[in-house]
Amino acid sequence: MSDHWSALAEETAGHAQDFVDGLTRVACGEGGDAIWSLLLVEVAQVSLAGAKLGASKDVILSGNLEPAIGEDPDLDGVRTALAERLGAVDDYAEVFDPYKDTSVTPYRLSDDLTAVAADLIHGLRHFRAGRPHEALWWWQYSYFNTWGNHAGAAMRALQALAAHTRLDVAEEALST
């Protein structure tokens, strides 16, 4: 594996682990009232890693076959805890594909964030097993196929929450 790919795998693994750790901490109650802002930063940072994967040439596996990695961990506890913490703002609306399907689709932040974590963890398992090329392939493939969309949708929703929190308070202060 070239130095470029090795460096990208190492960098992506770091961002993936940071995202998973941050998401788990928020699900466990850290962040207080600032959870939207914390989640926004986590999603933005991992989205940068995804954008780098998206801008890279295709990672191709030898034999075009992913080695077996076993069962991925169950993240339902994290998803449920996030849904409880997010409460009424967990549900939001999104356009899935602005070029092919412009209908509005219901989404949940808790589902989006744990879907991103699941894909990142799958790649981390390859990386930790000493297969950085397979990890890169998985992260790139799943970025285009699933987690990139979920991260982008979550980032838009989280940015809207942060904006409403700040701008709506400013508007209330101005009108009183």
Question: Can you put this structure into words, describing what you see?
Answer:
The structure is a single chain. 69% of the residues lie in helices and 9% in strands. It is built from five helices and two strands; from the N terminus they run H-H-H-E-E-H-H. The longest helix has 44 residues, at 132-175.
Distance between the termini: 63 Å
State the major sheet: 2 strands, antiparallel
The helix/strand series, from N terminus to C terminus, equals HHHEEHH
Low-pLDDT runs: none
Shape label: globular
Helix tally equals 5
Structural category is: mainly alpha
Could you estimate the helical fraction of the residues in percent? 55-70%
Strand order of the largest sheet: 1-2
Based on CA atoms alone, the radius of gyration comes out at: 18 Å
Could you report the average pLDDT, rounded to the nearest whole number? 89
Please provide a brief summary of the model:
It contains five helices and two strands.
Walk me through the topology.
Elements lengths: L2 H25 L7 H21 L20 H11 L4 E7 L3 E8 H20 L3 H44 L1
Antiparallel strand pairs: 1-2
